[in-house]
Design goal:
It is built from 2 helices and 9 strands, in the order αββββββαβββ. The chain is α+β, with helices and mostly antiparallel strands. The protein has a single domain, classed as Lipocalin, CATH 2.40.128. The longest helix is centred in the N-terminal third of the chain and has 26 residues. The radius of gyration is 17 Å and the shape is globular.
Length: 136
């Protein structure tokens, strides 16, 4: 009985790590443009430097743009649980609200879901940000 329980526990850990690895591979290698924050659709023409963007790098590195300033921080992914830390941010003056909206929303993200080519950053089941791969 203990042997079966041990195998089940090891199997559960293996499945969890596979799903995290698959999710990391889906997140990485592309730049994600933020298209909505807390239900508000963003317009690149209204921002000083375009839409906010996020890149998920190797070893939990997170970098991108707030729509005005650049950031370089970290992320932690455990299954579908996601924590974002924008870390160091450049300090240019930003006339529009995208940066503050983005930084406020980043703090609310608790998990992630990918639907096709859309990346949904959520707080529980509530949408926080919607992102799509940047078209090059």
């Amino acid at each position: 009985m203990l042997r079966i329980l041990f195998v089940l526990v090891i199997g559960a850990f293996a499945l969890n790590s596979c799903s995290t690895t698959d999710l990391v591979s889906q997140l990485g290698g592309k730049e994600w443009n933020v298209t909505s924050i807390l239900g508000k659709t963003l317009d690149a023409n209204e921002s000083m430097k375009g839409l906010p963007s996020v890149n998920f790098g190797e070893n939990g590195k997170l970098f991108g743009s707030t729509g005005c300033n650049n950031f370089n921080g970290s992320f932690k992914l455990d299954g579908t649980s996601l924590t974002l830390d924008p870390g160091v941010i450049t300090k240019m003056f930003c006339p529009d609200s995208y940066e503050q909206d983005f930084l406020s929303a980043v703090k609310q993200v608790t998990n992630v879901k990918i639907d096709g080519s859309t990346l949904n950053l959520l707080n529980g089941t509530n949408p926080v940000m919607t992102l799509v791969p940047k078209v090059k």
